[in-house]
Amino acid sequence: MREIVNALLHHGRTGCQWELLPHDFPPPGPVTYYFSTWRDDGIDQTIHNLLRWQVREMARRKADPSLVVLDTQRVHAVAGAPAESTGRDAAKRAPDRMRGLAADVLGLVIAAVVAATSAHENAVGIALLDNVAADTGIVQKALVGQGFKNAVVAHGEKVGIEVEVVEGNPAQTGFVPQAKRWVVERTYGILMLHRRLVRDYEHLPRSSQSRVYWAMTAVILRRLTAPKVPAWRTA
């Protein structure tokens, strides 16, 4: 089982094809079997959540956060992806998918949703709020960008989460990090280090969602096991 997990983490980080996994890993058949089985049973998210709780406890925080940050990201889908699960962006007119993340102030993923790009950000935001409310019991507030509309705010009231739309300063130009909301942008940047997520290579959106959890599992494992060495900035 450990070698199966190692193969999944290697596959996500390098972005190679299943058949091109190094020979010291189990054969591609068993690896893909467990990827699909754990995806459908929710075991991938369970593993991720158990490790995430440990990272938060190391930071002297509660297992679940009281505040989350919501954001979306558009990513190109492969040519063979089903049309009904990709859609077309009204502006780019390309078959893309939309990833939605709910992250805590440490940048850890609390919930992930993958949908067709033709879906509005409101639909992704509502799905994220539902997942956050179902998986955690103490989230009280969510910060969202201007792409989310009143429908997300109203749905937050139904599930007991206050939704605040963070607006940028119109006097500022270019990219300006917004307090607390920038952590989810950093999380997206970290996920891009995993080549399997640079594009959406999966045919099923739930497989793409599982990829996000496995990538964050790899990030969390490094945080839990990395040796405590001084940084080069330390005198």
Structure commentary:
The chain has helices at residues 2-14, 28-41, 43-58, 121-135, 150-158, 182-191, 205-225; strands at residues 67-76, 96-103, 109-116, 141-144, 162-165. Helix 1 (2-14) packs across helix 7 and helix 3 packs parallel to helix 7 (205-225). The protein has a five-stranded mixed beta sheet, with helices on both faces. 34% of the residues are buried. It has 235 residues and is of the alpha/beta class. Strand 4 (141-144), helix 5 (150-158) and strand 5 form a beta-alpha-beta unit.
Shape label: globular
**Spatial order of the strands forming the largest sheet:** 3-2-1-4-5
Structural class: alpha/beta
Nearest-angstrom radius of gyration?
18 Å
Between the first and last Cα atoms, what is the distance in angstroms? 42 Å
Fraction in helix:
40-55%
- Uncertain segments are none
Instruction: Report the portion of residues in β strands.
Output: 5-15%
**Number of contiguous helices:** 7
